[in-house]
């Protein structure tokens, strides 16, 4: 059985800057606040990626208010090593590690896997009423939630923080997939909340609202639904094929097989029409890209097309998580897309 992570219970107010405070934590840690009813627990996880700091910034600010939650509130500060790798809050993965939010499934053989296993054990031991995993989007854009299945409780919870819920059938080893693997969590509403871009002040406000509301609500099961919540199902991940070179610019770049528009994250809002040029394709054309669904079937030509060396949507699309970070594009994906 994995060893539990350290716990800091009812921490005193820390008036240092957030980096100094994170350094003082010493590594992955649970910050646990006593509640009016300590027999119940709610969980928030943050900083699974070191370059997604809105959750930790909001936590540091909120703890200064000396909150007393309705229930016990356990907050995980996860990937401290990645967050503190210089420059601070710019590294997604700890040096020498793997993407922590791809490690929540066996084998747990390396340091990242063992940390994910310990987090899983700790969450199950708390038998939480809900788990909300805070992230930042890899490009600028509005907040949205991601879940692995349709669930009315998830919709009511997510609808308090955003107007869009993505229901994905991809299984990547993320934390929000734990209810599928562990029956003890099967009835626990668990989802990811993408608070917005890491540099957007509004993203810290979204994360702050999660702490405040989960602390204030007497119950998470009797919330009223958000009638404006839009539920989008079965997104496709648009990825580079192995070895393909990418650039971001205002014109096609020499040596790049795919050049995306430098502000492609502007299309993380609304519907992108087939007339919008997303970028330029070099040698190999559309064959440089792939978009396999959860069953492994290639769907790229249903989403995108090439005209005169330029990349366009084949049909109106809802894009999200479109990034302008070439490293994330290579290691993860260019963007997600849902036909509109």
From TrEMBL:
Q: Where is the Succinylglutamate desuccinylase/Aspartoacylase catalytic domain?
A: 47-139
Query: Which species is listed as the source?
Result: Billgrantia campisalis
Query: In its UniProt entry, what is this protein called?
Result: Succinylglutamate desuccinylase
Name its co-factor(s): Zn(2+)
The record's InterPro entries line, in alphabetical order, gives:
AstE_AspA_cat
Q: Name one Pfam family in it.
A: AstE_AspA_cat
Look up keyword Hydrolase and say if it applies.
yes
Q: Which UniProt keywords apply?
A: Hydrolase, Metal-binding, Zinc
Q: Identify the domain of life.
A: Bacteria
Q: Does the keyword Thylakoid apply?
A: no
């Amino acid at each position: 059985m994995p060893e539990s992570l350290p716990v800091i219970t009812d921490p005193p107010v820390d008036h240092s800057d957030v980096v100094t405070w994170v350094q003082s934590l010493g590594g992955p840690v649970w910050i646990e606040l006593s509640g009016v009813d300590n027999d119940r627990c709610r969980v928030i996880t943050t900083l699974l990626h070191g370059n997604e700091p809105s959750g930790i910034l909001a936590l540091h600010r909120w703890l200064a208010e000396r909150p007393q939650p309705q229930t016990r509130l356990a907050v995980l500060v996860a990937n401290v090593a990645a967050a503190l790798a210089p420059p601070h809050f710019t590294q997604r993965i700890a040096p020498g590690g793997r993407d922590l939010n791809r490690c929540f499934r066996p084998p747990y053989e390396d340091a990242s896997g063992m940390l994910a296993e310990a987090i899983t054990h700790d969450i199950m031991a708390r038998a939480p009423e809900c788990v909300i995993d805070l992230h930042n989007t890899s490009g600028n854009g509005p907040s949205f939630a991601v879940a692995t299945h349709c669930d009315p409780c998830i919709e009511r919870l997510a609808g308090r923080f955003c107007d869009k819920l993505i229901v994905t059938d991809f299984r990547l080893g993320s934390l929000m997939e734990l209810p599928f693997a562990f029956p003890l969590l099967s009835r626990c509403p668990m989802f990811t909340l993408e608070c917005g871009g890491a540099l957007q002040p509004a993203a810290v406000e979204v994360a702050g609202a999660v702490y405040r509301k989960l602390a204030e609500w007497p119950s998470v099961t009797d919330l009223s639904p958000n009638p404006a919540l839009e539920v989008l199902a079965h997104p496709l991940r648009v990825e580079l094929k192995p070895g393909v070179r990418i650039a971001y610019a205002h014109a096609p770049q020499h040596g790049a097989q795919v050049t995306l528009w430098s502000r492609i994250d502007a299309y993380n809002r609304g519907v992108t029409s087939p007339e919008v040029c997303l970028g330029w394709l070099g040698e190999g054309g559309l064959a440089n890209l792939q978009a396999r669904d959860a069953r492994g079937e290639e769907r790229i030509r249903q989403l995108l097309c090439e005209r005169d060396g330029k990349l366009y949507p084949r049909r109106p699309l809802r894009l999200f998580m479109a990034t302008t970070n070439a490293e994330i594009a290579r290691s993860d994906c260019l963007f997600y897309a849902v036909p509109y």
